[in-house]
Amino acid sequence: MAFELPKLPYAYDALAPYMSAETLEFHHDKHHNAYVVKGNELAQAAGLADKTLEQVVVSSFKNPAQAGLFNNAGQHWNHIHFWHWMKKDGGPKNGKAIPTNLESMIKESFGSYDTFRGKFIEAGMTQFGSGWCWLILDANGKLDVMKTPNGENPLAHGKTALLGCDVWEHSYYIDYRNARQKYLEAFMDNLVNWEYVAELFEKGPVKIAA
């Protein structure tokens, strides 16, 4: 099926001051749209235009000859979720509790929310160059943190992404310049949509049809 650029689930200025309208306009309207346009072109050329986005991501990752398709399909998938992983007045600093089942699993897996927060930010800081940091659910139902380069995502590695943060410079340079840690801290403390994370958690491990 053809890739489509989704509308943002909020106004361009809704996430300010932690993410500016200018950043969202460039990130969504320019960068994400470019992945959609190029991804459709390459999926058509590869004979995969009738497959779901998830199927394209997994199959193209396994085929080195389709690296270009994977990069664009992967980034399209990443960004579809990224917009929903944020919301106005998100994060625990705004008095919003993490849904109970998810909070309990975070504490069971990491010892405490603060420990998880530190590991997530560290993953984003230690991802050299462009990439992503993730909270994932593995096949055994446990939570973990991982990082991936460029457009790679947990889906390509057979894991379920519950939360991801884009650490490509276009995601933060307008607002934070080279201060990636401040961006990651603002994301965790003020932007995360924990209800969406919990929704993905309750669905369990992702299964991709052949």
Describe it.
There is one protein chain. This protein has 210 residues and is mainly alpha-helical. The chain folds into 2 domains: 21-84, Helix Hairpins, CATH 1.10.287.990; 92-203, minor pseudopilin epsh fold (3-Layer(bab) Sandwich). It has 8 helices and 3 strands, in the order αααααβββααα. A 3-stranded antiparallel β-sheet has the order 2-1-3, with helices on both faces. Helix 1 (21-45) runs antiparallel to helix 3. The longest helix is centred in the N-terminal third of the chain and has 25 residues, at 21-45. It is globular. The model has no long low-confidence stretch (mean pLDDT 96).
Short account of what is shown:
With 210 residues, the protein is mainly α. Helix content is 49%, strand content 10%.
Write the layout of secondary structure elements.
Elements: H1 21-45, H2 53-61, H3 67-84, H4 100-110, H5 113-126, E1 131-137, E2 143-149, E3 160-166, H6 173-176, H7 180-191, H8 194-203
Antiparallel strand pairs: 1-2, 1-3
CATH architecture of the largest domain: 3-Layer(bab) Sandwich
SSE succession: HHHHHEEEHHH
**Rg estimate, integer Å:** 17 Å
Distance between the termini: 15 Å
Question: Structural class, judged by helices and strands?
Answer: mainly alpha
Total helical segments:
8
Shape, please? globular
* CATH class category of the largest domain: Alpha Beta
Give the DSSP E fraction (strand runs of 2 or more residues). 5-15%
Number of strands: 3
Q: Largest sheet, if any? A: 3 strands, antiparallel
Kindly report the CATH topology of the largest domain: minor pseudopilin epsh fold
Q: Which residues sit in consecutive blocks of at least 5 with pLDDT less than 50?
A: none
Spatial ordering of strands, largest sheet: 2-1-3
Q: Number of domains in the coordinates?
A: 2
Residue share in helix: 40-55%
| Average pLDDT | 96
Task: Give the full name of the CATH homologous superfamily of the largest domain.
Answer: Iron/manganese superoxide dismutase, C-terminal domain
